[in-house]
């Protein structure tokens, strides 16, 4: 047992991309290893929940928590790690705002499970469904139960810092690890609790190198069905680019590469509801005053709820669709 | 308190036309139901869709937005901006499963007190027919305001 500060990383409802992003810091991982003792990181090493339960409260210095709260197991571990950690970081889009797993909040659990087990893509002639508990001769065994909706980490426990991104960019992770090491060495101070770390204060548009003029949109286009000007703002070309509401920090990677921003860095500073901000931004630049003409132009965005809440549904003001929370209440 | 469902409605009115229409309805002593709580904005173009989302997520059963007639905006064309935002916002809310009738945009000039009152009347009855919304709020944690409404003598 070393006396190095302890580090934990956990994945709840997530894809594992956040872990890969951490490993993508390359040789910086050696600095990390020199300064921290990893005590719990299910994707990288073997550890049991009871080992964490046996730790003293507050004994883990830094926990990076990625993934949304989808099951009772996720919720249990979130509360456990909150108790054991001095600094709990909501790491990556899922923990911050629900991300793609949070899109399940468009549907009720029943619809979701039906889709997974009873559609043409699944060979399930007996229409078998997972059970959450099963009686064995040795006793009853359990698997985690799905919560009615996916929640973000800070809807379940108190969070110290937020680090957005799907996944967070590796250079941002390296910078944050550097900062924590400097804090440990007394060379720097931690930002105020509740801060967003490892990201910029502004919007993706601010980092985007494309040229911008006055925007007047007469039709929205899908990116694969149109010829793109390589230097001009994508939104100006009618491509629904989420840059105006999305937090900076990624160096505008997607627009630079010719693809629209889909919003993985979450709401920019001061944005209360990400989708509402985008509705404002898009509607402001539509060049029409006649309701029918406006409708024709808006038909170019076939799924506005999906367009505006791809990453942010669970963290938005409304949090889920009506059908999802109605089932939750029933 | 009556057994009849009394909807909670948030109304966003613009300072120059529709809020004055509401004022005129008041000075003319035209009755309309007290279910609507008006929030005055300088212009319907000030309406950030966030306001509507916040109202719906905080217990409102419906939201009505009122502005100057097209071509009569005090700030030239901001009511057209409100119109575009409203249409996109409504599509988004429908995508989230909201009944389209729970949000409404109407135009009312400062001279149209009677029209304003009758629009509110209609909207309250439409929302009453749709029933309570209570977006995501468990029934045991409802805001008090949606439970009882005081009757105000005209």
Q: How are the secondary structure elements laid out?
A:
The complex is a heterodimer of chains A (330) and B (154).
Chain A: E1 6-11, H1 17-23, H2 28-35, E2 37-40, H3 49-54, E3 60-66, E4 69-71, H4 72-84, E5 85-91, H5 93-97, H6 109-117, E6 133-136, E7 139-142, E8 146-151, E9 161-163, H7 170-184, H8 204-207, H9 253-257, H10 274-284, H11 291-298, H12 304-308, H13 322-329
Parallel strand pairs in A: 1-2, 1-3, 3-5, 5-9
Antiparallel strand pairs in A: 4-8, 6-7
Helix pairs in contact in A: 2-7
Chain B: E1 9-14, H1 18-27, E2 36-41, H2 49-57, E3 62-67, H3 78-95, E4 103-107, H4 113-130
Parallel strand pairs in B: 1-2, 1-3, 3-4
Helix pairs in contact in B: 1-4
The tally of helices of chain A reads 13
Structural class call of chain A reads alpha/beta
CATH superfamily of chain B: Lumazine/riboflavin synthase
* Main sheet: strands, sense, barrel of chain A: 5 strands, parallel
State the helix count of chain B.
4
> Into how many domains do the coordinates of chain B divide?
1
Topology-level CATH name of chain B: Rossmann fold
Shape of chain B: globular
Which radius of gyration of chain A do the C-alpha atoms yield? Answer: 22 Å
Query: Architecture of the largest domain in chain A in CATH?
Result: 3-Layer(aba) Sandwich
Estimate percent helicity of chain A: 25-40%
**Biggest contact:** A-B, 36 and 28 residues
**Uncertain residue ranges of chain A:** none
Oligomeric state of this protein: heterodimer
The CATH homologous superfamily of the largest domain in chain A corresponds to: NADH:ubiquinone oxidoreductase-like, 20kDa subunit
Task: Give a count of the beta strands of chain A, DSSP E runs of length 2 or more.
Answer: 9
Order of helices and strands of chain B: EHEHEHEH
């Amino acid at each position: 047992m070393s006396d190095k500060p302890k580090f934990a990383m956990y994945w709840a409802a997530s894809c594992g991309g956040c872990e890969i992003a951490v490993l993508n810091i390359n040789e910086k991982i050696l600095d990390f290893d020199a300064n921290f003792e990893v005590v719990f990181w299910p994707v990288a090493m073997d550890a049991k929940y009871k080992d964490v339960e046996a730790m003293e409260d507050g004994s883990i210095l830094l926990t990076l928590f990625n993934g949304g709260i989808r099951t009772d197991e996720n919720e249990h571990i979130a509360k456990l790690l909150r108790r054991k950690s001095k600094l709990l970081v909501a790491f990556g889009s899922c923990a911050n705002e629900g991300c793609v797993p949070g899109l399940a909040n468009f549907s009720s659990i029943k619809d979701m499970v039906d889709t997974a087990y009873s559609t043409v893509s699944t060979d399930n002639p007996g229409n078998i469904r997972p059970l959450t508990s099963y009686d064995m001769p040795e006793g009853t065994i359990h698997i985690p139960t799905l919560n009615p909706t996916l929640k973000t980490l800070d809807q379940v426990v108190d969070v110290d810092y937020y680090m957005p991104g799907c996944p967070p960019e590796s250079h941002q992770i390296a910078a944050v690890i550097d900062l924590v090491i400097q804090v440990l060495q007394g060379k720097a101070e931690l930002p105020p609790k509740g801060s967003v770390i490892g990201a910029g204060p502004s919007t993706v548009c601010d980092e985007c190198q494309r040229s911008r003029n006055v925007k007047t949109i007469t039709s929205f286009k899908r990116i694969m069905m149109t010829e793109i000007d390589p230097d001009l703002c994508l939104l100006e070309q009618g491509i629904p680019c989420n840059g105006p509401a999305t937090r900076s920090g990624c160096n505008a990677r997607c627009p630079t590469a010719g693809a629209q921003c889909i919003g993985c860095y979450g709401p920019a500073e001061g944005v209360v509801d990400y989708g509402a901000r985008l509705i404002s931004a898009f509607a402001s630049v539509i060049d029409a005053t006649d309701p029918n003409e406006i409708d024709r132009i808006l038909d170019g965005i076939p799924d506005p709820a999906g367009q505006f809440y791809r990453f942010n549904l669970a963290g938005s003001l409304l949090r889920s669709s009506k059908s999802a929370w109605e089932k939750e209440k029933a | 308190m009556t057994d009849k469902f009394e909807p909670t409605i948030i109304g966003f009115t613009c300072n120059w036309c529709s809020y004055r229409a509401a004022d005129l309805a008041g000075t003319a002593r035209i009755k309309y139901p007290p279910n609507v709580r008006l929030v005055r904005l300088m212009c319907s173009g000030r309406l950030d869709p966030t306001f509507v989302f916040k109202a719906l997520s905080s217990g409102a059963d419906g939201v009505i937005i009122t502005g100057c007639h097209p071509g009569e905006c005090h700030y030239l064309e901001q009511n057209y901006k409100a119109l575009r935002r409203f249409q996109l916002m409504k599509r988004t809310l429908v995508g989230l499963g909201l009944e389209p009738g729970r949000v409404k945009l109407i135009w009312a000039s400062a001279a149209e007190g009677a029209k304003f009152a009758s629009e509110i009347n209609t909207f309250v009855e439409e929302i009453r027919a749709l029933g309570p919304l209570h977006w995501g709020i468990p029934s045991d944690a409802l805001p008090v305001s949606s439970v009882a409404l005081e009757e105000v003598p005209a």
